[in-house]
Amino acid sequence: xxxxxxxxxxxxxxxxxxxxxxxxxxxxxxxxxxxxxxxxxxxxxxxxxxxxxxxxxxxxxxxxxxxxxxxxxxxxxxxxxxxxxxxxxxxxxxxxxxxxxxxxxxxxxxxxxxxxxxxxxxxxxxxxxxxxxxxxxx
Amino acid sequence: xxxxxxxxxxxxxxxxxxxxxxxxxxxxxxxxxxxxxxxxxxxxxxxxxxxxxxxxxxxxxxxxxxxxxxxxxxxxxxxxxxxxxxxxxxxxxxxxxxxxxxxxxxxxxxxxxxxxxxxxxxxxxxxxxxxxxxxxxxxxxxxxxxxxxxxxxxxxxxxxxxxxxxxxxxxxxxxxxxxxxxxxxxxxxxxxxxxxxxxxxxxxxxxxxxxxxxxxxxxxxxxxxxxxxxxxxxxxxxxxxxxxxxxxxxxxxxxxxxxxxxxxxxxxxxxxxxxxxxxxxxxxxxxxxxxxxxxxxxxxxxxxxxxxxxxxxxxxxxxxxxxxxxxxxxxxxxxx
Lengths: 138, 336
Fold this sequence. Notes:
The complex is a heterodimer.
Chain A: H1 4-8, E1 10-13, E2 20-26, E3 30-39, E4 45-52, E5 58-62, E6 74-83, E7 91-99, E8 102-103, E9 111-114, E10 125-137
Parallel strand pairs in A: 1-10
Antiparallel strand pairs in A: 2-5, 2-7, 3-4, 3-6, 6-10, 7-8, 7-9
Chain B: E1 4-6, H1 12-28, H2 34-40, H3 46-51, E2 67-75, E3 82-89, H4 91-94, H5 102-107, H6 109-115, E4 117-125, E5 133-145, H7 153-164, E6 177-182, H8 186-198, E7 201-214, E8 224-240, E9 243-252, E10 260-270, E11 274-283, E12 288-300, E13 303-311, E14 321-333
């Protein structure tokens, strides 16, 4: 049974357009990494990849699955973050879907305003975001 | 020059308590050893520098910590015990300053300077008058620090690898949560500190402070007198292996026509449980050298103590008597 969150977040892509790129961003010098996976209609993982926002706070990954095959596929992610700056405990983590250099419309934004983010060094607690979206064609 | 020494008695019980308790507390601690060094490297409070009551006269050039509380207890020969408190904080982050990324911290010199600036406010009881309060305001900026952890690219990469190893992409049925999980990245910091311990490098900091006396402890402009301005430049060179060379120029401008200049050098040895330093300072007003030693120990998580013994200005009545001053500071790193 599909998770209700997946039903609420859809990403509209052009099946005839260029490859789809996933962008992970984290501001306020947060340290953010993610593991992503693409599931088919039978809930079987077709593609998996890691991403690290790194020192620049931003990372891109181009999905190998062609856009015409993405319809109804579900992309899930688990993003983990902490703060490297002791005085910073909040920030924004976002995931954008890009095609041909432009962001794809999302029915629900993939952006999280996080607070009480623990310092990487001084606490073992790390914020985790687990969520998903479903690709639809125009 | 050192024909006789006189020592204060009033602070000895506190000193003995710190020295006896510290090893026991440290033995019980399960924190990795490198963390003591990270906790230690907290620069002196700029406001206490303006008041002239820091445990060490030769100051560090290290990067600022966001919020630190200092509790001072000082006693000089045949004088009242002075108690004081200083709060140091990083104004940039406290008043809403932000950084886009670690990369911005490394490449934007102005933001890095702002992030490494420390503002502090301190008060201490007057030695001469029982109902007067001395206050100090200070600002300090680290111009550069080659041991700044945020400049260590390898640290960030090691943290990323540990974080990535702790998660898996969820199935569609598992999504929909923002929660917290336990992931320990201290091995990355331990590797970083070990790299820094072996690395030679330097740090430079500049500071300015103003101090004054509030007569009868009344806070209005009419009751403020004895205003002094202090500026300083402090430099640290790390030889690697935990040994630092420190040097300082400090100028005090109580009266423009008769400024007082101080030049000092020190050697500090950083250990896993203790930091020990010895210093010698030349003061232009008395044309004499002053000597001192200080010991810094981590008592508990985020809390450290600094104990120092230093020579004071010679007595005006007995120039052969070198008076010694004992300082203890309890330092609480609130930013961790």
